[in-house]
């Protein structure tokens, strides 16, 4: 059984690995649900030669997964960069406007990622027909699907996750969103073997001066709260998978 931890900083990657993560999904843009990391971060992380597989997410923007050709071209370039920097896998997904998989552009992305491990991310959770999408991703040779079972969190979507797991031929079903040590057993019981978690905790900003009149995000979030990996939670989950 494997534990994949979603990390939004190099420091969190190191923390997660030191406390038992088997694989890392590396992202920027936490408030957007995960965006392609910067070249600077990808280069620096690759130079550390860490002992665990790190898969960067390839997602050019937040919002929906219906991409223009310009955005697809950027994703292809980012996949090629990940390959040049010796990352062993990438995470991506795309849909067309009716909610089905964008097979034409997926084939382009898969070609760019030839030889790399491929995870189809939670674009799956907003597709119109998850069973059809599963069969198509099986046929395309995608290694795994990250999914919350088309619900707000994986516990709520566990019935679909179990159905997908039973129906899948070669593509591995990896539940994510809300996976913690307190509910891991629910997914082990249905035969799941890989798990995805942000294992996050909130921390106060070390800023002594805090101007509460200004917010940098349109979502009006608290600018003086940081999120990071909870090493104790990573350890708890890993112990439950041994």
From TrEMBL:
SUPFAM superfamilies: CutC-like. It comes from the Bacteria. Coiled coil: none annotated. This is PF03932 family protein CutC. Keywords: Cytoplasm. PANTHER family: COPPER HOMEOSTASIS PROTEIN CUTC (PTHR12598), COPPER HOMEOSTASIS PROTEIN CUTC HOMOLOG (PTHR12598:SF0). Belongs to the CutC family. InterPro entries: CutC-like, CutC-like_dom_sf. It is found in: Cytoplasm. Signal peptide: none annotated. The keyword Cytoplasm applies. The keyword DNA damage does not apply.
């Amino acid at each position: 059984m494997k534990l994949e931890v979603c990390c939004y900083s190099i420091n969190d990657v190191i923390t997660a690995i030191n406390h038992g993560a088997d694989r890392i999904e590396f992202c920027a843009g936490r408030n957007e649900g995960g965006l392609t990391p910067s070249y600077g971060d990808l280069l620096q992380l690759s130079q550390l030669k860490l002992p665990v597989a790190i898969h960067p997410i390839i997602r050019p923007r937040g919002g929906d997964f219906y991409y223009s050709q310009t955005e697809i071209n950027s994703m292809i370039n980012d996949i090629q960069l990940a390959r040049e920097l010796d990352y062993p896998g990438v995470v991506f997904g795309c849909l067309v406007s009716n909610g089905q998989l964008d097979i034409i552009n997926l084939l382009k992305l898969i070609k760019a990622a030839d030889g790399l491990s491929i995870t189809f991310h939670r674009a799956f959770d907003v597709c119109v027909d998850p069973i059809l999408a599963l069969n198509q991703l099986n046929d395309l040779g995608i290694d795994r699907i990250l999914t919350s079972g088309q619900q707000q969190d994986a516990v709520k979507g566990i019935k679909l996750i179990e159905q997908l797991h039973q129906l899948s031929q070669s593509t591995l079903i990896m539940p994510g969103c809300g996976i913690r040590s307190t509910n891991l057993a629910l997914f082990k019981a249905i035969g799941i073997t890989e798990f995805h978690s942000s294992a996050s905790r909130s921390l106060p900003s070390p800023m002594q001066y805090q101007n509460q009149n200004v917010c940098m995000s349109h979502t009006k979030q608290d600018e003086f709260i940081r999120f990071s990996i909870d090493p104790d939670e990573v350890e708890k989950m890993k112990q439950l998978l041994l």
